[in-house]
Amino acid sequence: MIVQKFGGTSLATVTRIREVARQVAQARAAHDAVVVVVSAMGRQTDELVALARGITTEPSRRELDMLLTAGERISMSLMSMALNAIGTPAISFTGSQSGIITDTQHTRAKIVALRPIRIDEELQRGKVVIVAGFQGVSPEKEVTTLGRGGSDTTAVALAARLGAKMCEIFTDVQGVYTADPRIVSDARLLSMISYDEMVQLAASGSRVLHPRSVDLARTYKIPLWVRSSFNWNRGTLVTDGDKMESVVVTGVTSETDIAKVAIKSVPDKPGVAAIIFQALATARVNIKFIIQSIGESGHKDITVLVPSDQLSEALDAMESIVDHVEAAGVLGESDIGRVSIVGAGMAMTPGVAATMFEALASHGINIDLINTSEIRIDCIIGRNRVADAVAVLHGAFGLNRLERKESSP
Questions:
Q1: What is the pLDDT of residue 181?
Q2: DSSP one-letter code for 250
Q3: pLDDT tens digits, residue range 253-265?
Q4: Residue 104 to residues 138, 154, 182: CA-CA distances in angstroms?
Q5: pLDDT at 347 exceeding the cut of 90
Q6: Contact 209, 238 (CB under 8 A)
Q7: Is 63 helix (H, G, I), strand (E, B) or coil?
Q8: Which numeric CATH code is attached to 242-402?
Q9: For residue 289, what is the enclosing H or E element?
Q10: Cα 26 from Cα 229, distance rounded (Å)
Q11: Rounded Cα distance, 303 and 259, in Å
């Protein structure tokens, strides 16, 4: 059994859906069973969001989920029709029909259980099963969505639950690159990358795979093939294989849809941080990372990065507890971006941070904040210098010359 996922660009037109259907039919002829997860056609999700915003600037999250799931339902039914039309028996299911149970968080729910009873039944009948990605149903029988990139998570979760030998993620790019090829013209396609590296690339701005999907694949040891649906190229294998520690830096990523919120001069005593982050949690703010200053005179600054569309919620949450925690005030900034380097070999190689900082400094790129993990370094810089920083770091670490041996599929 294999699971295949097709993104919106791959399904943007009726012609594209027919082409993908032929591709799926070939896969079905080569494998015992095939499950296909589909996203909404083209930019249909964006169009549905725009419709909602045209009605109200703050649509109900429940009703937004009801609206947005329509996009995947259109794709799944058309794909099933296309397969049946060429003689490949197929049937489509929504997330709830597929047994995808989520928590109750509308617009960014998490999968808590999978009960693919109907999928199993139809696979035993020899059919290709088409599943609407990005969606599920809560224990209260409410329709929910998994957030942007959620179809990747749907595909990997089903692959794990159904015991698939691999999960193929078909998209409009050739695979995973050392940097965004739209920014760096000589970015190289990686033939293989480890789960750990891919999680960090995805979390720091690479939009090829959703971080939650890679996390699931790593947990359940599901090999991921990231491939283009427009050709038969091999793409990139994401696996638990050799982390290639001789390759110090694997890729450079960037992100510009982030914002910074700082609560200033917070008393350095137990319980203050708990109050601050409980306020953010209550406001359902997604925190990307946290930096606390060393401080002086018994006070510290605490800074968080949040998605740019949650800046107002984060500011409101912080300001609501300023007096309670005896802070000096709250500052917010949206004109920022993040550039990151990722590589499994970084943990064993001294001088990586120095090379990164020197390269940025030599091009007049000022660093506002720094965050590190074992295999990743993030720098917060001005948004207008993000593209420059990606190109500079890609060259500084010689990523245009990176070589990795291919693994067998």
A1: 87
A2: -
A3: 999 999 999 999 9
A4: 5, 17, 37
A5: no
A6: yes
A7: helix
A8: 3.30.2130.10
A9: strand 289-292
A10: 13
A11: 10
Contacts by residues 210-214 (CB-CB < 8 Å, ≥ 24 positions apart): 210/148, 210/149, 210/150, 210/152, 210/153, 212/110, 212/146, 212/149, 212/152, 212/153, 213/149, 213/152, 213/153, 213/155, 213/156, 213/169, 214/156, 214/238
Dihedral pair phi/psi, residue 370, rounded to 5° = -130, 140
Mean pLDDT across the chain: 92
Q: Which residue(s) pair with 255 in the sheet?
A: 338
Please give the model's pTM, rounded to 2 decimal places.
0.84
197-245 pLDDT per residue, tens: 999 898 887 778 888 899 999 999 999 999 999 988 889 999 986 544 4
Q: What is the pLDDT of residues 308-333, one digit of tens each?
A: 989 999 999 999 999 999 999 999 99
Contact 169, 226 (CB under 8 A): yes
Tokens found for residue 348:
């064993």
Domain boundaries, the chain: 2-172, 242-402
In degrees, rounded to 5, the angle at the alpha carbon of residue 313 between the alpha carbons of residues 309 and 315 is 110
In this structure, which topology does domain 2-172 adopt according to CATH?
Carbamate kinase (3.40.1160)
58: tokens are 């703050």
Residues 6+ apart with CB under 8 A from 100: 111, 114, 135, 136, 137, 154, 157
Measure CA 156 to chain center: 13
